[in-house]
Amino acid sequence: MTDTPSPDAAAAAPRRRRWRRVALWILLAVAGLEVAINVALNTGVTQAIMGRATDRTQLTWQRAWWLWPVGRLHLKGFTLTQQDANVWWKVEVDALEAGMSLTGLLRKRVDVDGIDGHGAAFHLEPSGAPEQPSDPNSKPWVIHLKDVTLHEVRELDFSRVRFAGALDVTGTLNLQSRERLRVDLPSVRVSEGFIEVDGKRVARLEALDSRALLDAPFQKDQGYDLSQALSGQVKTRIDVLPLDWINDQLGASAPVSLRGGAGRVELDVRMRRNTLEPGSQLKASGAELDLKAGPMRARAPWSLEASMPPEQKGQPTGSLRLAFAPVRVSGARGNDVEVPEVALTVLARRREGQPGLDLEPELHVAKSKPLDLRVLNPWLGKTLEIDSGHVTVRSDEPKQGAKARNTLELRMDTDLVSGRMGQNKVLLRAEVEVDARHLSWDMTDLGLSGTTLRLSQVSSNGNVPIRSWSGNFTLPRASLALSPTVLKARFVSQLTDTQPLVALITSSKKLPGFLTSLLNIPKVEVTGQVQIDERGLQLRELKAKGDGFSLEGHLDLVQGNITGALLTTLGAVTGGIELRPGKHDLHLMKATEWFKGQPVPPFR
Q1: Transmembrane stretches, by residue range (predicted)?
Q2: Is 169 within 8 Å of 149 (Cβ atoms)?
Q3: Which sequence spans correspond to the domains of the chain?
């Protein structure tokens, strides 16, 4: 007896075979699509398509695999690069995995979720690339990286400044080409790392914990606007390494050098739209800093404190205090002067109804121990050789209850100084006021514009003795070169009388005696340019005016010997005076023509 299949069973067999074929074809299609996706990922097709469409943004990788649609995308050697007319930056990740939307690519969107990367680096530098025109009708790409975690970020390179160490970052990135860039980093942590400047290690990060938000709109013809883009908080502890590395920045020929100064910094900075917020503070201190500037050397430990407390009406918005204590200053021969403390305090106040801050600086210099002025003889000796005398340095203390004035004024006062100009004995007192608001420094010259010099109790025993003379000299422009040491200044002076001028031009007894008494004019204004260096003093564009009196000319003074030419007018009489070592000649006939024929030597 033979069994025969039922009609239903016979019909089911072909149906099962058809479903198997359908399932096989679907499996083959999925496998083919999987192969196509991975081939496209690894042959550069995807990168080329995105590169043509993303303007100046590029996504690249070396190798990739993706078990789509259930698996995660795996990339090796991943880079994200962005460039505009201002900056170029690149993120590199050794290996990462993430979930990614394939359909988003068809809509010019890169939607990546749950990125987990290891071994990363960031590079940023100025671009200078010309702006490229773009098709206004083209749809920009959108790159959205969500829930990003990067482990072992080994490098943050900002051109000349670089971080090297181990850093962990979590955050998101949303970039809409030619519209907006938004980077949200809720956590950036460093266990240890180093900061480098031009390849030199300058600090060690002991710990860093921060959060940051960068939200920058795109400005046509200007790129991404970073002027109000940054908000966040940074808390860190930093060990500052010795500052010797600064000498490489200054160059081998710089007259200034730094040594030492290693210290520690604790920093808590809070920002909102590029503006410091209340709660920000900084505390730092360091070992002795050794500064050499020309023939002078200063050594001092340092400290720095800054804070921005919660705002209260009438109170400063923030304050900063930089202090050096004690400060020891020495000259070429090692003579020391010690200043107990030098401190600069700056108070900041918000402007009513306006952006920005008003700054109120105050300089405090505690009165120094007296410095023997003979330390200046190697430089000043051919003008005035000092036998005895001392100077102290201090700042003016504001009177109690009075509003502070001249709070950036530095004063130097001498006792009675005894010295010699050639064969003549000289006694004087000097007071110097330096307005620190006008100080400037370009590594070769120290700007001293606004300085005032007051001389008093000036006496001399020359052929024409000077008794209790005084004068004030204002320097609207002045600079002190450090190596070699040269003082150059334009001066305006108010003199009690012309005793010094008389003493200079009557050092020879051959000058008519009546001129001595007539030239002793009270209340004289003198202007000119002066240069003092190791070879002596030079006066140029010298002009003096008094009641019925005027004088102009040039002088050189070296160890009491004077050379130069003067044109003097007293009432209706004009005469020329030729100054030579040991001999002075008077020219009364055609004095003006004679004076115009006298060459004026340039400053050395």
Answers
A1: 22-41
A2: yes
A3: 37-129+139-241, 277-366, 422-427+460-597
Q: What is the distance between the alpha carbons of residues 457 and 459, in angstroms, rounded to a whole number?
A: 6
**Rounded Cα–Cα distance for residues 164 and 195 (Å):** 7
- Do 203 and 239 meet the contact criterion of CB atoms below 8 Å apart? yes
Contact 157, 164 (CB under 8 A): no
340/81 Cα distance (integer angstroms): 54
Token reading at 413: 């006062």
* Strand-pair partners of 336: 330
Task: Report yes or no: 522 and 496 within 8 Å, Cβ to Cβ.
Answer: yes
Q: pLDDT over 90 for what percent of the chain?
A: 33
CATH class of 422-427+460-597: mainly beta
Cβ atoms of residues 258 and 243 within 8 Å: yes
Distant-in-sequence, close-in-space partners of 399: CB < 8 Å, separation ≥ 6: none
CB 251 within 8 A of CB 245: no
CA 549/CA 338 separation, integer angstroms: 46
pLDDT in tens, 55-106: 567 778 888 887 776 678 888 998 888 776 677 888 899 998 988 776 776 6
Give CA separation, 326 vs 42, 287, 414, in Å: 66, 12, 21
Helix axes 45-53, 7-42, angle to 10 degrees: 60
Provide the greatest CA pair distance for the chain.
167
Nearest to 449 by CA among 471, 433, 429, 472: 433
As a whole number of angstroms, the distance between CA 146 and CA 105 comes to 16
SS3 per-residue string spanning 186-227: EEEEEEEEEEEECCEEEEEEEEEEEEEEEEEEEECCCEECCC
Q: What is the pTM of this model?
A: 0.74
